Every structure is written in C-alpha cells, then in structure tokens.
C-alpha cells in the first residue's frame, strides 16, 4: 500500500524514531489550566473547541488537574453529552497524550478488531493469526477483563512464558516478521485513557457513549490502522443490553473511525448466550486452538471468519463479501493461521514445549463437575450473564482491577441452544479449584440452562452490519 496523506485532524507533535517505530509525543510545556471554566462550560451545555479539549486532556495527563475536578467534568459530559466534533477532538487528544505507533511502509495493510466484551468471547486469539495468514499486519493492543467479561490478555497469560507487555520496538519487529502481535498497552500509550477510565469506573460515568467512543478509538487510532472491525455486543451479558443501544454506539464509532482515516465497520452480535462451548481463560485458549485446527464450535468460527472477511472488503483485498468469506475459509483450512499462532507465541516468549504439554491435558483444575440435564427436551437458552458470574466467582475473573485470577477454572462442553438432550445428558463441565466451589457452580449453571419441549427458533449471531 502507498503512504497515506496526513489528515487534517492529526495534531502537530514532536516525533522520534526507535527501531522503525515512530513515537509521537504531545508537547508538554504548557501552563496550568483554569479547569473550573471548562467544568462550568460543559455544565451549562457549551460546545468546547478542539483546542480546549486538548488543553483539558493535556492538563489531566500532566497532573495539573486534580481528580475531583476531572470527575466533575466527566459527570457534566455524562449529562450534557458531546457533539460529534467534540467527541472527535477528545478522542484525538487522548490518542496523542502518549506514544502513537507508526509502522514502516509495507504493502500489507495494518488492521485490527475490537470487541465490547462478552462471555466466552475469544475471537481475537484465532483471528489475529488468520489475518496474518491473509497478508495483513495486526498490531492488536488488547486489555484485561473486569467483572464477568473476559480479557484477551488474561487468556494469553495462561500460556507458559507468554509475554503480554512488549516494548514498542519489539511490537514492530513481531508485526514485521510474523504478521501479528497480541499485547497490552505500553505504559506510555494513551495514558489519558488509563486515568480517565479509572475515574469513570468509580464515578458512575462509564455508560456515556461519547466517553466510550473516545476510550475505544483513542487506543485503536494509536495503532495507525488502515482498517478496523468492531464487534459491538448486546444482550444480557453485554455492556449494551439492547440492540438499539448497541447500534447507537456502533454508529458513533464507525462514523468517527472513518472520519479519522481508518476504514471502519461494525457488527452487532448477540451476547445472550455464551460464545463457543468454553468460557474461562485457559479453556478458551484451548478452544481457540481447536478453531485454528478447523475443529472449533460453529458460532466462534462464524464470527472469526466474518471479521476477517469484512477486513478483506474494507481494505479492498476482496471485491465483495462472499468472495472475502471464501478467501478466509480457504486460509483457515490451509493450516497457515495455526503456524502463525505458534510463531507468534514463540516470538512473545512462550515455552512451546510446556504449552503443548498443557494442551494435551484434559484439565488443569483439581475438581471437575458435570452439569446434567434435569429432563428430556431441547436447550432453549443458556444465560450468559449467570455463566460469567459463576466463572468470576470461581476465580476466573475480577471484581477489581488488582485482583489475581485463576487461569485454569471455567466451564466447557457447553450445550448450545437447539441441542436435543435426555435426562442426564451433559450440558456443561465445571473446572474448579475446590470441591465446594465446583458443587456450588454446578448448581448455578444447571439453573442457567432452559430446557423446553420444542427446539427454539434459530437465533442470529450477527444481526446487523453498520457501515455508517
């Protein structure tokens, strides 16, 4: 691909180059801000300029704005909202609060995917090596889970020796040599978002669409992407409970991503039922490997292939979606993505011998309990929120960001909606650290399943595609 023109919205910044990665640093010699005036302006509904929003973000990042004042500003935004122009300016100011990765010129497009989070959502793990096999570069900057939503980095932490924190130069090297990397945000990448999210989390201002858009896109735009696919989930175990809410968020992110020069598309996906047949960090890694071996559950493979196909279309590597889908299927069946996966693991420090030994074992947890069907019929549903809460309580998730997690606990062999069962049929297996935890989890999970005399109507996984 040729070089992209510098868009109108890219702020003036100083840059230095480190082993092929250009790192953009926001200018810091700025006097302290009169922050009260910004709080009052937004409280009263005034539209803030791009320069004012850069001043707000810069002052907060430099420690010139106390948390209590920024919390007041966030609450004003929560109630008053932000215009499209304000949201764009806030997003870009947050992006440029730290390092911005600009990779060396290469014919392979830079692409990524972001999910708003769910239970059993392991799409990133098989998708990144599939995209690398399709001729993309994937600098996938991922996060950790909180509450019932799993985090990609937590799943990868279950792989012996795997390093999720890499220096910018190493990110560039792995992307260049392998085609994909999955790692965490560096200490100097979008620091404004880290501080703002921590405040939002404790001030009741998380569910603000402009603030969500700015948080997600500031990190993705810091990867200097050519194209981005968004998986915006809705349902009982999703951040957005209704399809309408998910659509509103998706449209806002797609619109801003495209305005900022990154070809962006969103999929609205159902998160009332867990994705795949396993939930829990190491169990999801194992299921991701089965997907790369073309043995994965249908819903997981469907979403992985759909994300890849849409990125082929967004980058004009395929003329239409059916052709793109066939390309993705052919690549997955070729075995190349599985090889890319293991190359990525090795490049990020994984002990492949220990990893393969761990894969060969049925479970790493001391206790297993089978969850059996109470009577004959058809699986009508499995409450993903209950399942996520059970895994969290088993130790596989966090209530606070600093909690340690148990990577080996979780649930697998989940029966999917529509499956026929008899009395005593297996509906799930619990992997737990103690006998008491296993017993309690089994009771809760059995109640999460609904068994009906007739099969339920087929449910769509991907219910809508948002282009604008």
Could you describe the 3D structure shown?
The protein has 468 residues and is of the alpha+beta class. It is globular. Helix 10 (243-259) links the parallel strand 7 and strand 8. It is built from 17 helices and 15 strands. The protein has helices spanning 35-43, 50-61, 67-80, 84-95, 124-133, 152-157, 168-177, 191-203, 209-221, 243-259, 281-292, 298-314, 321-334, 336-347, 352-359, 384-396, 435-448, and strands at residues 14-18, 21-25, 101-102, 111-115, 138-142, 180-184, 227-234, 263-270, 367-372, 377-382, 410-412, 420-421, 426-432, 449-452, 462-466. Helix content is 44%, strand content 16%. The strands form five sheets. It has a four-stranded mixed beta sheet, with helices on both faces.
**Quantity of strands, as a count:** 15
What is the CA-atom radius of gyration, in angstroms?
Answer: 22 Å
User: How is the largest sheet built, in terms of strand order?
Assistant: 4-7-8-15
How large is the count of helical segments?
A: 17
Distance between the termini: 24 Å
Uncertain runs are: 1-30
Average pLDDT metric:
91
Q: Largest sheet at a glance?
A: 4 strands, mixed
Short summary of the structure?
By secondary structure, the protein is an alpha+beta fold. It is built from 17 helices and 15 strands.
Question: Topology, pairings included?
Answer:
Layout: E1 14-18, E2 21-25, H1 35-43, H2 50-61, H3 67-80, H4 84-95, E3 101-102, E4 111-115, H5 124-133, E5 138-142, H6 152-157, H7 168-177, E6 180-184, H8 191-203, H9 209-221, E7 227-234, H10 243-259, E8 263-270, H11 281-292, H12 298-314, H13 321-334, H14 336-347, H15 352-359, E9 367-372, E10 377-382, H16 384-396, E11 410-412, E12 420-421, E13 426-432, H17 435-448, E14 449-452, E15 462-466
Parallel strand pairs: 4-7, 5-6, 7-8
Antiparallel strand pairs: 1-2, 2-3, 8-15, 9-13, 10-12, 10-14, 11-13
Helix pairs in contact: 1-3, 2-4, 3-8, 4-9, 5-12, 5-14, 9-10, 12-13, 16-17
